[in-house]
Amino acid sequence: HNRRLQFQDRSSRTGIFHVYTSELLLQEPTTDCEIFLSLLLATWFSVDCNPGPIDDIAVDRYFIPKSCIREVKSGDFVRYHYNGTFTDGKLFDSSYDRGAAFFGQVGQKWQIAGVDKGILGMCVNEHRKITVPPHLAYGSQGAGDKVPPDTTLVFDLVLLDVFNRADQVQTKVISTPKECKRSVMRTDFVRFHFNGTLLDGSAFDSSYKRSQTQDSVVGEGWLIKGLDEGLLGMCVGEIRHFIIPPFLAFGEKGYGTEIPAHASLVYHILLEDLHNPKDDIIVEVMKASEPCTRKSVAGDYIRYHYNASFLNGITFDSSYQHNHTYNTYIGMGYMIAGIDKGLQGVCTGERRRIILPPHLAYGQQGAGKDIPGSAVLVFDIHVIDFHGVKDTVQVDITRKSEACNETSEVNDFIQYHYNCSLLDGTLLFTSRDYETPQDVVLGGDKIIDGLDEALRNMCVGERRTVIVPPHLGHGEKGAGIVPGSAVLRFELELVSLQKGVPEGYLFIWLEESPGHLFEALDVNQDQQVPLEEFSQFIKQQVSEGKGRLKPAQDPDSVIIDMFKNQDRNTDGLITQDELKLKVDEDAEKTRHEEL
């Protein structure tokens, strides 16, 4: 009886699989010849040999990639390059020569049956040689003048792409930020960096090479559908890996010369920025200031330190690096709109974070080389101080004097201790660094106006905390280590007080002056008063509490000046005609001015 025998031979090369068939007439061996044939057949089955023409495909997987995303299945669409040769190696067709890879659907007769079968299980970037017998190729008819009838063909393939109509965007989250307060939603504007490749790893674009992010609105058709879908839910700083099938990418048309038709796309994306055109500024108080006696308003002049960064945390500017606060008016258009708004309602010493959408920062144009267009900005701000142009000296009495018979006023000579600091607590000066207290004649234009004012109406032993705005301090330019436009804080203690005399006076009477002043001065009644008599008389008035010399000066020097004022002919003597009280002189001057 006849039997059809089928057996296989496995080569030592991994993945090669040959199927052979042979028809043999098998009978019981009766003759020597038949016995010989039986022995020969047994020997044939026990050795490695070529049985003859193949009846099925032979697949040689001569390069298998380490990573295989997916294997080709029936119904998948594939894109591959190939060289088609005869068994003698002669080339009859090549996709490389045409400059376009083959594209078709597996199992739908888009390609010859042998290749359709041989490509199953193939991975992207895998190389295979598929040997196809005639009946699984072009059969007895051949193919035009290129492939003769009954020809075995060899196809050398490299798989470039595979996808299925049922595919969706494949998303793999590579890394996520520790904190995510907001994720991408439809209509959001995003800025992201990406590397884009085809499924075989061929790069087609990279935002890094352009040194510029890809900027787009999500869900409004600005991007391919796969990116529109894949970006949803991403956080700033998150990295995702996308595989996008062609029908959610550039489809059958491809894009330019880099992305062929029917190409799956692979994106490696880092989300840098996120906002919505309807966003307002976001203010987060990082550290409140207690107590807060006053909050900033439009028109105030403010000094603050800041660190400025993008949403991804990269710093682009800092006042600390400049070693100088940023000083400006609030709400008057001197700053970008978001900061102008975010600085209103702050307290001195407060720390706050202000997040600015681009339309309240530098917009689509950006600023210089450091701030790209459409960038969300983050300002971490420390308010040093602020003031209004009409602010006055603020006085807070921290300790009152139990016994207070007189208070300080203009022209008084006082001694006081002080600590001078900025509102952030930075100590600038202190009288404790010196052996004696600070002294001054109030109203003498020897100290800043705000401090001069703050020291008035004080009792000895009284303590005050005083806030002096810069226009009553050291102004816009500052002085030494005092920054320009700095609000100053003084802690004051009045140590001593000597009452003064009015401006222009060297001596004043505390009681009525003598009716006959010259006679009182002229002790020896010789109708002339030398310096000695004059000095003796004035010192007596002071000691008896009837008069007061100008303080903070040597009494003898003051008396000499008084004497010179009366010795009008400079002969060293005062006569009755020369002697005039200053009050009378001032009255006489006033009469002359009126005339």
UniProtKB/TrEMBL annotation:
Entry keyword set: Calcium, Endoplasmic reticulum, Glycoprotein, Isomerase, Metal-binding, Repeat, Rotamase, Signal
Gene3D superfamilies: 3.10.50.40, EF-hand (1.10.238.10)
Keyword Mitochondrion annotated: no
Main EC class the enzyme belongs to: isomerase
Catalytic reaction list: [protein]-peptidylproline (omega=180) = [protein]-peptidylproline (omega=0)
Coarse class of the protein's main subcellular location: endoplasmic reticulum
Pfam families per record: FKBP_C
Domain EF-hand: 509-544, 554-589
Location within or outside the cell: Endoplasmic reticulum
GO CC terms, sorted: endoplasmic reticulum
Residues covered by the PPIase FKBP-type domain: 75-163, 187-275, 299-387, 411-498
Tree of life domain: Eukaryota
Role summary: PPIases accelerate the folding of proteins during protein synthesis.
PANTHER family xrefs: PEPTIDYL-PROLYL CIS-TRANS ISOMERASE FKBP10 (PTHR46046:SF3), PEPTIDYLPROLYL ISOMERASE (PTHR46046)
Protein name (database record): peptidylprolyl isomerase
Annotated source species: Sinocyclocheilus anshuiensis
